[in-house]
Amino acid sequence: MAWVNDIIQGILLGGLYALFAAGLSLIFGVMRLVNLAHGDLSLLAAYAALVIVGPLDINPFLSILAVMLLLAVFGYVLQRGLLNHALDAGPLPPILATFGLSVVIQNLLLEGFSADSKGLDAGRIEHQAITLSDQLAIGWFPLITTLTAVVVLLGLSLFLGRTRMGRAFRATSDNQQAAQLMGIDNRYLYGLAMAISLATVAIAGVFIGIRTTFSPSVGPARLIFAYESVIMGGLGSLWGTLVGGMLLGVAQTLGSHLSPGWGVLAGNLLFLAVLAFRPQGLFAKQVHE
Amino acid sequence: MSRPAVRVERHTRASRTALPAAAVVVAIAASVPLWGSSNLMKTAVSFLTLLALAQMWNLLAGYGGLLSVGQQAYVGLGAYALWALSERAGINPFLAVPLAGLIAAIIAVPTAALAFRLRGGYFAVGTWVIAEVYRLLVINISWLGGGSGVSITSVGRVDRGTREVVVYLLALAVATGAIAFAYVLLRSRRGLALTAIRDDETGAESLGVNVFRSKLWVYIISAFGCGVAGAVIYLNLLRIQPDAAFGLQWSALMIFTVVIGGIGTLEGPIIGTVIFFTLQQVLSDYGTWYLILFGAVAALIAVWAKRGIWGLLVRRWPVDLFPVRRRLCLETACFPEDDSAPSPAGDAEAGTIRQT
């Protein structure tokens, strides 16, 4: 029974990873951008929530909208001010620029908030659970997280599949030059994609902040989980990201079940195994570069 | 019927003076133990090892087109190989340094088989995950000291003064060796292939360059270099902690140094290392602000001045200290005409990776 519990907890943990990775999947799909600052941006969101929640003394859930708005604006400015130029300069500059950004954000947070661990307190909900049997309990908070992930992914795929703007996103993703010829302003579109991506990062950042404590240095480790989810699921496939995240979550909980130190390692090894045997990921869209 | 006298010109006016000048610099550096303080030598070791690491990353990304964010794997593996060889196998620690590089190079072969399945940005993340796997494996193997790390105690038998001098000379040898090796490699046939790959991978392949083998080569060489540098770094520090030895900060330093100095040139990493050290010393009282500044400048340079500071300097004052390209000379003139302005990758695309 303990194994069943582990798997369920792993799936729910995977929901969190998918929520966090959704934004990465989106911007890779739309503009082939690999954002190495994604993890640090989620921390930026968590610290922003901390700053809002502290003086107002409100539940961190209530800060999510404000943090989303904040990060969306930051994302739009970042994309138009820096990353669009990086994308024009070739495939290498965006990676280098976001890597630089990652180090800058991480150390700015360190200077501003010190290296101490912080946490967001969401009250009783954090500890309440649905008890199925004495060995099986589903926490409300992980469940809400996973449902949020599903809602976000559903929202993104409806947006991409059903709206006029979503069609422009897909067109640009398929063929940027042809889309431009049809009158699509890809610079504006990329700015919007980054804004949406960072808005989802804001949700994820606050959720992770409620789930565990955080310090400025954990961003890169988070980024790795997000990328493992995206790559295992298959590049550019939103629902693949959900499955990838859940596989990673299950591997980690089963790994820690064997030995506390093996959790993250088990996730990494599963990722390398997928890479070795199915490098295109489990649910890859046709990848054409 | 006589063929016109054609010759291939390699050197430039600047390089004819630069090589003897470099020899003088190395000679002066080698004399530091005679007059320098032990503090100076310790600082110099971190300078020289960073220079070597930067050259290795430059070779990898600037010429091989392999944007790795996981070279800390080989720094850490070199450090731990040094420890295992000297503490567990009883080999002389100074002798263990090149062997540590060799071990890193051997581990790089299966690693490459896996990492090379990814391209571009995902290769970057993949190499990073692999470095994390090595870190976690080391932490979970108690024979290797686990999470708290290990100490290199066998050098304690050597008296302190001698040890500092030998470590310093090793670091000097590693840095000089890295530059000299990169220079010779890039002037060789294999280097020509690498430069061709950097400029256009598909084009190079169609001309008969074995792209995969060339990339594998440069990856293994870079692993060897990083392994040796890692061994020297920890011979200087004497205490290895897995989180630091396999830390992402090594990649950050290598990458920023090369990008700021000028990727895809041999001069760039030298300039970048000098700038980093100056910045670090000047801002040493202000916490991590030197890293914030360094990261921000690297991001801006990566986007708006892709050829780095060296590229900006060369545009103003055309010199080529380490010429690696070939020029065709007839009796009266050479092509391209200027014997300076290095354009290692063609103007627009210097230092970029093209994806097919």
Note down, in words, how this protein is organized.
The complex is a heterodimer of chains A (about 290) and B (about 350). With about 290 residues, chain A is mostly helical. Chain A has one domain (about 1-115, about 160-275). Helices cover about 75% and strands about 5% of the residues of chain A. Chain A has a two-stranded antiparallel sheet with strand order 1-2. In chain A, a hairpin with a 2-residue loop joins strand 1 (about 130-135) and strand 2. Chain B has one domain (about 5-335): ABC transporter involved in vitamin B12 uptake, BtuC, CATH 1.10.3470. In chain B, strands 1-4-5 form a three-stranded antiparallel β-sheet, with no helix packed on it. In chain B, strands 2-3 form a two-stranded antiparallel ribbon. Chain B is globular. The N and C termini of chain B lie far apart (about 45 Å). The interface between A and B is large, with 46 and 51 residues.
For this structure, the quaternary state is heterodimer
**Level of helix content of chain B?**
55-70%
Distinct helical segment count of chain B: 15
The global form of chain B is globular
Question: Regarding CATH, which class of chain B?
Answer: Mainly Alpha
User: Beta-sheet strand percentage of chain B?
Assistant: under 5%
